[in-house]
């Protein structure tokens, strides 16, 4: 995202989403950690990295929801959409098709939030949600799924201990 424009600086208006950038960078950084792809057998592909980042983003969004930070969760989602749009364009996807891809990504995010919320807050089968959404039904060992599930559950526990301000500052626990 470009730096603030001359007019924004002149009139003192800044993009409110900028305050969520530390949290977004923390989510992406965590999603790129090698252990997900090595020990967790998440496919080290564009789709696999997208799915891993979405798994962590979903946790952050669910926690923001619990903290009553509705507007901040919208801004965090907008940062995600802007980033994905930029990534698609960088990969050479044309303007006509980018919107369709982003729409599918948003649908995937919504579905995963629902699946992971059920697993994290309502006791539905997390391993099954991961097999369906993170691994997209591919054959993966129980040990790999257990690694990802265990690490995400640990993160969820730590997120539950964070204040709103700490989370917004990019602390993922």
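Q: What amino acid sequence fits the structure above?
A:
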């Amino acid at each position: 995202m470009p730096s603030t424009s001359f007019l924004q600086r002149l009139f003192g208006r800044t993009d409110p989403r900028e305050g969520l950038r530390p949290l977004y960078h923390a989510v992406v950084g965590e999603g790129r950690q090698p252990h997900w792809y090595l020990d967790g057998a998440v496919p080290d592909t564009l789709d696999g990295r997208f799915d891993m980042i979405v798994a962590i983003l979903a946790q952050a969004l669910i926690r923001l929801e619990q903290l009553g930070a509705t507007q901040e969760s919208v801004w965090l989602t907008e940062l995600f959409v802007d980033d994905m749009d930029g990534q698609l364009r960088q990969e050479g996807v044309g303007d006509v098709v980018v919107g369709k891809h982003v729409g599918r990504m948003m649908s995937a995010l919504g579905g995963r939030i629902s699946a992971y919320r059920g697993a994290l807050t309502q006791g539905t089968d997390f391993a099954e949600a991961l097999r369906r959404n993170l691994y997209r039904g591919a054959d993966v060992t129980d040990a790999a799924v257990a690694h990802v599930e265990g690490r995400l559950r640990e993160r969820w526990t730590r997120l539950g201990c964070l204040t709103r301000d700490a989370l917004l500052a990019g602390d993922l626990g």
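Q: And what stands out in the fold?
A: The mean pLDDT is 89.
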